[in-house]
Amino acid sequence: MAIFSFNKGFYKSLLRLFIVAATISLSSLLATAENLDNAWQMALSQNKRIEAARQNQSAALKQIAIAKAARLPNLALNAEYLTLDNSPTLNGNSLAMLPNAPVGQGLVNVPFEVQLADDNAMLYSAVATLPLYTSGRISAGISAAEAQASASRNDTQQAILDIKMAVAEAYIQVLKISELNTIASAHIATLSSYKNDVTNLHRQGLVSRNDELMASVALSNATHDAISVKNQLAIASARYNQLLNRPLNTPFTLEALPPGPRCGHRMQKLSPTCEADIHAMTALALALRPELSALKNKIEALGFTAKTIKAVTLPQLYLSGSYQDVDNDLLIDDHVIAYGVNLVWSLYDGGITHHRSGELKRKAAALQAQIDDYQQLIELQVTQAWLNLDETQQRINALGQVLEQSAENLKMTNNRYREGLASSTEVLEAQNLRQQSLGNHTNAIYDSALAWIRLQRMTGEL
């Protein structure tokens, strides 16, 4: 029978080996972890809303091509088969001299018929027209299409920003709940250890049965809370995968995010410097937000469209040319070529153009009202985002000391309990305070990261 003995050095070596192996595994895991940029790329590459916005943008570009094509010649071919109930015939009379009649006498009218065409025929024609002057109708149409294409690009940018914001929220939510889940598991482990200690002390008659029951209830409550956190983590992970267009149960690992930058590199309430930053960011948002630019471009498009409609009632000058084959053997030449300049001027259309122009002006005025309201909304959104960021940073600063204090309080309370100087209620309260401080600090950290990203979204820089 072999007897193996192990000294402390062996356990230390084994512990060091375990730490090295864990470090290597962690490094390998982090090397393949997803970061927020990867998540954005995956989400944008297959997102249906982005695809729809890009298709609309392509359609808007086609409208520009259509508007520009109005400047080019238009060629139309036509073929027609005609069947008539009677052949076209010319009736008439002609003077004829009777034979053997004296000079100056014997003239009579003789009726005659001449067939001009057959009772069926094939007609062919080719007509080409080229606009020479349209009172600005074509150029206004091109400008309207270009403005609408710009608005479509703005809509695509807005969709991209919205998707990136949604992915960032889901990404940070997974990170936050994952850490809360770790905290909950550690809390359960701490309470389990404490319950075992209380059980042993109760068996030795050093504490009452009430202490053991309190420890069991606290452990059950912590287990209940941990189950809820795990469920939240599963839901957040499914939401994240859904945004990345992959199966909801796809496993993944995420890289951590740093908190947002601090105002003046200090945790404080808004100072004049921070207020200046808000003004600068508000100005940046008014210049970059695609929603605002889209409204402006749509107003511009409506203005040009109104000019296009009005130009229809003004002189339109075209160069035209045509070739016709009437397919008539009775004619000496049945091929006809014609060319000329056509002037079209619609003087009155019952007020249709006037009303359509008025309709577009009202729509433009409605969009302008939206712009005025949206500018105030953007200012509010930037201010709220900046204030929320400052608040989270103040929370982080305040909670930094609480973490140390709660850890020290728990240690001191455990020591006093073992010496019989503290009750079980005090120990459990100290553990709950430690758990609460860890959770609050975690929430503040990730709320700060999210607040910074949301501020970038509000300024249009995301």
Question: Notable features of this structure?
Answer:
6 strands, 13% strand, disordered N terminus, two-stranded antiparallel ribbon, 9 helices, single chain, 4-stranded antiparallel sheet, 2 domains, 462 residues, alpha+beta, Outer membrane efflux proteins (OEP)
**Range of strand content:** 5-15%
DSSP strand tally: 6
Averaged pLDDT: 81
Number of domains: 2
The main sheet orders its strands as 1-4-5-6
CATH class categorisation of the largest domain: Mainly Alpha
Order of helices and strands: HHHEEEEHHHHEEHH
For the termini, the CA-CA separation is: 70 Å
Overall 3D shape: rod-shaped
Radius of gyration: 43 Å
Assign a percent range to the helix content.
55-70%
Helix/strand/pairing category: alpha+beta
CATH level-four homologous superfamily name of the largest domain: Outer membrane efflux proteins (OEP)
User: Would you identify the CATH architecture of the largest domain?
Assistant: Up-down Bundle
Give a verbal description of the structure.
The structure is a single chain. This protein has 462 residues and is an alpha+beta fold. It folds into two domains: 36-69 and 134-313 and 350-459, Outer membrane efflux proteins (OEP) (Up-down Bundle); 78-83 and 117-132 and 315-348. The chain has nine helices and six strands; from the N terminus they run αααββββααααββαα. It has helices spanning 8-31, 36-46, 48-69, 137-203, 209-243, 272-288, 290-311, 352-418, 424-459, and strands at residues 74-83, 89-97, 107-115, 120-133, 316-325, 335-344. The strands form two sheets. A four-stranded antiparallel sheet has the order 1-4-5-6, with no helix packed on it. A two-stranded antiparallel ribbon has the order 2-3. The chain is rod-shaped, with a radius of gyration of 43 Å.
